[in-house]
NADH:ubiquinone oxidoreductase subunit NDUFA12 (Siculibacillus lacustris), 135 residues
Amino acid sequence: MKQLVLMLLTWWKGITFGTWVHTRLYGEFVGEDEFGNRYYRTKGGAIDVGLGFQRRWVIYKQDQDGSAIPPGWHGWMHHRVDTLPTDETYVPRAWEKPHLPNLTGTAAAHRPLGSLLGSGRRAATTDDYQAWKPE
């Protein structure tokens, strides 16, 4: 019962009731990424008449965070490629960093020098800047 109430009332935590029904009726599971996000498309890869292309969607494992989609799945979701990442053998490069969640609004958020919440002071401006003055 608790899961049903959460599904009805909390759209930011996982799947909603409407998405669950749509997925059960019209969706086809195509894969899962390393974060547990599940990816779907219209059954049989059918083209949506109203859109003119195949519908693709993701059901997030935890919070609804668009930055939690890995690059391969991001390309597939946005119709950049039609090959599923599960069908490819991809080896990450040494310079690629692991995913970090969106840290905006947290204590770990980026705060540049000179911002109200940042530490330190912004570097002084140089002589190449002249403020505009109305005549």
Notes: The two ends are 69 Å apart (CA to CA). The chain has a mean pLDDT of 83. The helical segments are 2-9, 17-26, 71-77. The chain has three helices and three strands.
